[in-house]
Design goal:
The protein is α+β, with helices and mostly antiparallel strands. It contains 5 helices and 8 strands, in the order αβββαβαββββαα. The chain has a single domain, classed as Beta-clip-like (Beta Complex).
């Protein structure tokens, strides 16, 4: 349980909750910025080893940024009855859902941005910087190498075939 007072808890959540899970056109689920994040800023996609729990009365949730309040209410219905809740940064393990791009905008090691990221933009890391990445993502038929998944490639092929027929 957080040792911060109610106002400090609200300030911490408003400061640290910057991303959420969403539907990705690249690979089903991805991580998206809920606000603009400047180059070099922390994204808080790596969960804490010990999750942060908060005790903010339901009536005070209106002091949270709307995007943060929405995430809390989506995940912790019982907050309406005064229950504690976990930080949205810690309950979803966002890091596990960051997709690959050869032009990444997120650094998994430092949990920071590699460039400015706009609200609504998807975060991407480069899987190839991981040791032995090719054993998990072999070169043959690897849709992650160019940032497109096989569904997108298949749709492009269908569109091309329709055009020539």
């Amino acid at each position: 349980m957080s040792k911060l007072n109610k106002e400090q808890q609200i300030a911490e959540l408003n400061s640290e909750v910057r991303c959420k899970l969403g539907s990705s056109p690249i690979h089903s689920v991805g991580v998206f910025a809920i606000r603009d994040i400047k180059w070099g800023e922390r994204c808080y996609c790596r969960p804490n080893f010990i999750p942060k729990f908060y005790n903010i009365p339901f009536g005070s949730l209106s002091k949270l940024f709307p995007e943060v309040k929405e995430l809390v209410l989506q995940r912790w219905d019982s907050v309406v009855n005064g229950s504690i809740f976990c930080s949205p940064n810690d309950d979803a393990h966002l890091l596990m859902f960051i997709n690959h791009s050869t032009s990444p905008n997120y650094d998994v090691v430092s949990d920071t941005t590699l460039k400015d990221i706009k609200k609504g933009e998807e975060l991407f890391e480069d899987y190839r910087v991981m040791d032995n990445w090719s054993q998990v993502r072999p070169l043959k038929d690897n849709p992650w190498l160019n940032g497109e998944n096989s569904i997108i490639k298949e749709n492009k092929l269908k569109t091309f075939i329709k055009k020539i027929l």
